[in-house]
Amino acid sequence: MKYLDVDGIGKVSRIGLGTWQFGSREWGYGDRYASGAAGDIVQRALGLGVTLFDTAEVYGLGKSERILGEALGDRRDKVAVASKIFPVAPLPAVVKQRAQASARRLQLDRIPLYQVHQPNPVVPDSVIMPGMRELLDSGKIGAAGVSNYSLTRWRKADAALGRPVISNQVHFSLAHPGALDDLVPFAERENRVVIAYSPLAQGLLGGKYGVDNRPGGVRAVNPLFGTENLRRIEPLLQTLRTVAAEVNAKPAQVALAWLISLPGVVAIPGASSVEQLEFNVAAADIELPAQSREALTKAARAFRPTSTRQFLTDTVREKLSRR
Ligand SMILES: NC(=O)c1ccc[n+]([C@@H]2O[C@H](COP(=O)([O-])OP(=O)(O)OC[C@H]3O[C@@H](n4cnc5c(N)ncnc54)[C@H](OP(=O)(O)O)[C@@H]3O)[C@@H](O)[C@H]2O)c1
């Protein structure tokens, strides 16, 4: 495993574990996953040196935090647990109360990284950040982060906090490489962290899905799994397969290795099994040749998905034609 040393948090593994899947209906993994596999995945992750575990108060309406806190056992206060507040009415008293509720579900006294889940479109960061600052000053959180923030808004959040907002968790993968343009250079320059979510494009970069084999649940409404996008992404998947064969790895591992080859970037893939977790962790040890990294970046930039509107129109048309 490779690590970043992050102010206020400590050792952060470049491959973490995303736990939206834990106890959430959206993924359709069911009760057996929530009460069995999820805990096994966390245990194995700990054993393999993973220190970053990402959750949120909204995942399974608190279930993800509870399952994660329980599964971490007595290691829970020794790793970098990251949770998120959904910023509805984020006045300081609300922020403090919600952080306390998350900490209780996680069985922690202090949350190492506490993130604002989304930029609130109507409430500026000058409202939410004083609450985050109080949490930092009282030691209830180790560091403050944001999620889904543009670079402009990240800087505004810095100003509102009165100190650096250490991380920004964003949608970032070979299939969604926009963070390369501004967030990654900023993180490198300012010694911040970009946390890549959906780093496997919700499993699409694992290479097993296609027009005749699409996942359900939340992924049924992910435009990337639409017919036209599955066609458009094929050259990128082909590049991924070629590089995977060169370095003797799986496509999903190459997708993760590409992300963490970038300065200041860590990835938090979710996993539906212990085996997937093991493959994902092993991606930290893959050194991609410069030429392969460039080929992947070029293929990522060349992928142009259809608009969400086009995806919805196509999906309705396909459903009607099947009647
Ligand atoms: N801040 C935000 O707004 C936000 C938004 C989304 C996610 N997140 C966080 O980011 C985490 C990860 O994102 P995500 O779960 O959306 O997507 P992801 O990590 O890209 O995809 C996870 C899914 O990919 C498949 N997979 C995992 N490892 C694989 C492997 N080695 N080979 C093939 N397939 C593999 C599994 O699904 P199957 O086996 O079922 O195919 C797994 O559930 C979440 O758990 C959450 O913590 C944050």
UniProtKB/TrEMBL annotation:
Gene3D superfamilies, sorted: NADP-dependent oxidoreductase domain
InterPro entries reported in the protein's UniProt record: AKR, NAD(P)_OxRdtase_dom_sf, NADP_OxRdtase_dom
Highest taxon listed in the record's lineage: Bacteria
GO molecular function, one term: oxidoreductase activity
NADP-dependent oxidoreductase domain residues: 14-299
PANTHER family: ALDEHYDE REDUCTASE, OXIDOREDUCTASE, ALDO/KETO REDUCTASE FAMILY PROTEIN
Protein name per its UniProtKB record: Oxidoreductase
Species per Swiss-Prot/TrEMBL record: Mycobacterium gastri
Upper taxonomic lineage: Bacteria, Bacillati, Actinomycetota, Actinomycetes, Mycobacteriales
